[in-house]
Amino acid sequence: MHCSTPDEPSLYTVKAVFILDNDGNRLLSKYYDPELYPTMKDQKNFESNVFSKTHKADNEIAFLEGMTIVYKSSIDLFFYVVGSAQENELMLMSVLNCLFDSLSHILRKNVERRCLLDNMEGVFLVVDEIIDGGVILESDPQQVLQKVNYRADDNPLTEQSVAQVLQSAKEQIKWSILK
After folding, report:
1. By three-state DSSP, how is residue 124 classified?
2. Tell me, what's the pLDDT at 58?
3. Which of 87, 112, 117, 127 has its CA 20 to 30 A from that of 5?
4. Which Pfam families has this protein been placed in (predicted)?
């Protein structure tokens, strides 16, 4: 693991990322520091605490439980990026903006609960391209989209996957008939 004193800079800038719906229910969460909130119960309590402090606020930054939290909402979703108390808010904000802009592109600007749930595979890919184990890998949405193979004219992942499965099934049926 990594050991660092509180004042020592670290690459492990992101402690957690989570997306909640407008009732505060978890849709996606990734915790990168195993010691921070080790159990699911701890995580959900933290998320619920964060949600109750932020869902009606107009700010973009909150300080809670010794954490720096940047957040953004869209229709019925709340996006959170969590760092330590001494973490640079601008760094965390660049992660949040990258996440939001990348998802906005994948969801075709339809950043709301149902659409997010329909595209969870793509959402996880985006999060994994931006952050790896708490280290920020990318903060440019164009780079993230390129890495997850998204282009403006592509179908969303789920439609692509269904089309591929159907095509594969057609091929198998065709070959079984031809035998």
Report:
1. helix
2. 81
3. 127
4. Clat_adaptor_s (PF01217)
Residue pair 14/131 in contact by the 8 Å Cβ criterion = yes
pLDDT value of residue 4: 44
| Mean pLDDT calculated for residue range 119-124 | 91
**pLDDT for 7 beyond 60:** no
Spatial neighbors of 151 by CB under 8 A, at least 6 apart, are 145
SS3 123: helix
Question: CA-to-CA distance for 97 and 100, rounded, in angstroms?
Answer: 5
Is the pLDDT confidence value at 114 over 60?
A: yes
Domain ranges across the chain? 14-152
Torsion of CA 108, 113, 119, 120, to 10 degrees: 140
Q: What's the chain's average pLDDT?
A: 85
Cβ-contact 81, 31 below 8 angstroms: no
State phi, psi for 77 to the nearest 5 degrees.
-130, 150
Q: Which residues pair with 72 in a beta bridge?
A: 79
Q: Stretch 87-97: mean pLDDT, rounded?
A: 94
* 77-84 and 14-21 beta bridge pairing: antiparallel
Q: Which CATH class is domain 14-152?
A: alpha beta
* Predicted pLDDT at 9: 65
DSSP codes, 135-152: EE----HHHHHHHTT--T
DSSP state of 57: -
